[in-house]
Amino acid sequence: MSFSPNEKGQGLVEYALILILLIIIILVVIRLFGPSISDFVNNLLSTPTPTPTPALEGSGFLLGKIAVIAATL
């Protein structure tokens, strides 16, 4: 299939226009929802994490379970 010189760059221009449109959409979304997203992330980071119970703390619990399973085999 032969292309005329005017058609060779058409695909590139179309991809560039799609990319520009996506960038504009992303910027608008960030502009509109940026503060609420920031507040959400800050709330997640500032929420204290629950402390684990001593029975489940560390790898001793897991090793104990493995020992029990191995003993039953």
How far apart are the first and last residues' alpha carbons, in Å? 70 Å
Instruction: State mean pLDDT (0 to 100 scale).
Output: 76
Q: Assign the structural class, choosing from mainly alpha, mainly beta, alpha/beta, alpha+beta, or little secondary structure.
A: mainly alpha
Principal-axis shape equals elongated
Radius of gyration: 28 Å
Work out the helicity level. over 70%
Low-confidence stretches: none
* Order of helix and strand elements from N to C terminus: HHH
Please count the helical segments: 3
Features:
73 residues, 3 helices, single chain, 0% strand, mainly alpha
Would you kindly provide a written description of the structure presented here, covering whatever features stand out?
The protein has 3 helices and no strands. With 73 residues, the protein is mostly helical. The protein has one domain. The longest helix is centred in the middle third of the chain and has 37 residues. It is elongated, with a radius of gyration of 28 Å. The model has no long low-confidence stretch (mean pLDDT 76).
